[in-house]
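Intended use. Records like the one below are meant for learning the mapping from a protein sequence to its folded structure. Do not use them to infer anything beyond what is encoded.
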Amino acid sequence: MHDHAPAAGGIRSAGHRRLLTISLCLTATIMLVQVVGAVLTGSLALLADAAHMFTDASALVIALIAAAVAARPADDRRTFGYQRAEVFGALINAIILLLLAGWVGIEAVGRLLAPQEVEVAGGLMLVVAGVGLLANAVSMWLLSRAQRTSINVRGAYLEVMGDLIGSAAVIVAAVVIVTTGWMPADALASLFIAVMIVPRAIALLGEVFSVLSESAPQGTAVADIRAHLLGLPGVVGVHDVHVWQLTRGAPVFSAHVTVEPALLAGGGSAALLADLRGCLVDHFDVDHSTFQIEPAEQAHCDPRHV
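Structure written out for the chain above:
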């Protein structure tokens, strides 16, 4: 016998898509402001931050496309639906981040090793960076709750967080230029932006590979789940346990459960299935579960069970 519960919604909610759209509009607007500011001030740091925002805008577009795809219902060919579209979108985001970090780093080191006589307008640079900082703070606030349940929204959230830190670094560089006239501060801020991108991209890649390799979700202890299930009346064994996730916030569980013959003979399997499902929902936040109930003597004859 099997019991199925619906999978988590993830990025499919219209609220998530609306937040991503608002964040995209903010990011694209500030990106254009920073490009103009970089041209007017000669600031490499502003240009690097604008390039980072361009990547973030692209990532948000990818997230919205993935959201639309993930919202499509399951069918006979894709029985879990299209939620994995979120994961592939996050993978593209991470790759773009790494390419961006390389480009910004090369440009920054080149300017430090072969400094050019470029006068950076620190005052205007400070104003533009301040506007970017404020816009990124608003975007982070909008995405903060949704990123806890969607890997793709989390990718966008991490990129906006990087933008906020990058804007702060540009502000520091602008203050140094305004107060001391030391122009290399601009290139150093650019290099800082490049360096801070890498750990975020690697962390996102790690989460993507964890999902694609069907590893148990972080923080999920299979031994604890098995112990909870064994504590239910009539359950004598739990084997062939599998825990994975379709995307962030959508864990899936399956297991074979051996029970006392008397429970099956007494027609208690339906009540047991409800208890098994309730245990996973209440204690482990697993909404999609599949169980196969077997009599104890059958499990003892199967050498494969673990």
